């Protein structure tokens, strides 16, 4: 494990305040075991690398939002995330990419979740 001072990085799933649901966790749980294992491995790799991976594993999207890129055969999974204070990586939104360009609607969902995190930061401490 990589340590930065006394505190290691941790990963948390965005949680909708109204429903209590975590869309990224729900997305991952619906996948088959092999895809799920690969995504969880990449998430841990992201944590060990302090929230930053170079392409092709991760790509900057907008502002502080980045995209974790996990390809499994023909399935291209994308998880938007950002690094929050106190060494916390928040996984905002996940989807299966089916086009060459990332759909604006998917970026907007991640942005909305990002702003919701900023409005209620205590949930992620």
From TrEMBL:
Question: What Pfam families does the entry give?
Answer: Gp49
Q: What InterPro entries does its record include?
A: HigB-like
Where does the source fall among the domains of life?
Bacteria
Record's protein name: Type II toxin-antitoxin system RelE/ParE family toxin
What species is this protein from? Candidatus Nealsonbacteria bacterium CG02_land_8_20_14_3_00_40_11
